[in-house]
Amino acid sequence: MTTHKNLIRLKAAVQEYDWGRTGSASLAARLGGNAIGHGFQIDEKKSYAEIWMGTHTNGPAHLFDDPSTSLLSLISTDPRFYLGETLVRKWSITTHIPYLFKVLSIEKALPLQAHPDKGLAEQLQQKDPSNFVDANHKPEIAVCIGDPLGKARIGDKDTAFTGFVGFRPLDEIKTFLQKVPELSHAIGDAMLVASFTQDPSTDLLKRIYGTLLKRGAEARGEVSSAITKLEERIKNGGKLSIPNGDELAQLVLKVNAQYPGDAGVLATTFFMNFAKLKKGEAIYIGADEVHAYLEGDIIECMAISDNVVNAAFDAPQSLAPQINTFVEMLTYTARPVSHWALPREPYPHSREGRTSQYNPPLEEFVVLGTLLDSKGAGTERLGAMGGPTIGIVMKGKARIAVSKGGEQLELDEGGVVFVAPGNDIEVELLEGRGSEGSEGEVWWSCFGA
Known about the structure:
Elements: E1 7-11, E2 13-15, E3 21-22, H1 27-35, E4 47-48, E5 50-53, E6 62-63, E7 66-70, H2 71-77, H3 79-83, H4 85-90, E8 99-106, E9 112-114, H5 118-127, E10 140-144, E11 161-167, H6 170-179, H7 181-187, H8 190-198, H9 202-218, H10 220-235, H11 245-258, H12 264-269, E12 272-277, E13 282-285, E14 291-303, E15 309-312, H13 316-329, E16 341-342, E17 345-346, E18 355-358, E19 366-373, E20 379-382, E21 389-395, E22 398-402, E23 408-411, E24 416-419, E25 425-429, E26 439-446
Antiparallel strand pairs: 1-6, 1-24, 2-5, 3-4, 5-8, 6-7, 8-14, 9-15, 10-13, 10-14, 11-12, 11-14, 13-16, 17-18, 18-19, 19-26, 20-25, 21-24, 21-26, 22-23, 22-25
Helix pairs in contact: 7-10, 8-9, 9-10, 9-13, 10-11
Keywords: Isomerase, Metal-binding, Zinc
Family: Belongs to the mannose-6-phosphate isomerase type 1 family.
Pfam families: PMI_typeI_cat, PMI_typeI_hel
């Protein structure tokens, strides 16, 4: 008879994308020795963007002590034990964990993107299965976990993450179209711009945004010329006579240095909200919502999917086939950035009060953050979850134990664990382990909390 384990150390997957931080500057790389293990070594010339913790086929987790066995194959041996009765009943056709848990370390802007809803994901997979390997939606949350950005910062001294999220209120976009002539030149349709400024609407926003993005792929030289003129005006001391003009000028220069002449420079700076998060703050991005993260370290969690449609900050030949779909899929929600904020709340099943929750309007997951220190707050106990839980030690050294079977693990930074449903979890900060021994930080994603 097979003996089931309630606490399993995982070997996560690392993803190298060119927007990731390079070498040991990347949090994903620094965690890799324990998250990936088995000979992982940092190459200082590579960009380490993400650590994946889940069962998605594009980056599946495996058992740390048996790397030939995937977490998905283990779950498939007894789905009710490893997923829980509720989840098995709810999604009986799959043995995947319903979420994908990640760490992202971002050096420059990700592609301007949106993730399809379930209906569109099914259509895209049928049409292009090589690029859309699953038929699921991908709403996601991002929780800022990094230190302040320092010299690269745009924002106040505590800003630790920046990104573009959703559309600005229509009146703000109207003002930018009126006061930034280079923006209208890049769009290349004076009548369309005039219609929007006279009577802003989401329908006209869709037309203007689509026109700009399509010209970015089909008439890149003209868009690039408009951006160059704007850049030269800013560098020569020309002020942008608009609200937050100095900050927007900095953004134009920063993003254009990363993607020179790309339509995304304008499509993000002047159409989208600029989110600035401090450590512990979070945002929620629903399906079909436009976004492009810019800089910082985050915990990210999403419904299990790797579907994405891009429209800027990538090679034009790659973008051109995607732009029509991108323009049609967006919600065009145009509100202040606070609309996308996700509150940090006390976790009701925390026995010691040292865990917060980030609970998006989804059924697939809740994200938890446990903070420990050696000054009388070195332990935490979490009530049993109804579904699978994955955790990663982000800081310090921790002992993690579960209520069934007396199982426990000691893990350094980067250690990743799977906890079977129905287990209370105890976390203890282990002291005397070097300079990081006085503080501990563990992040969790769970179903059925």
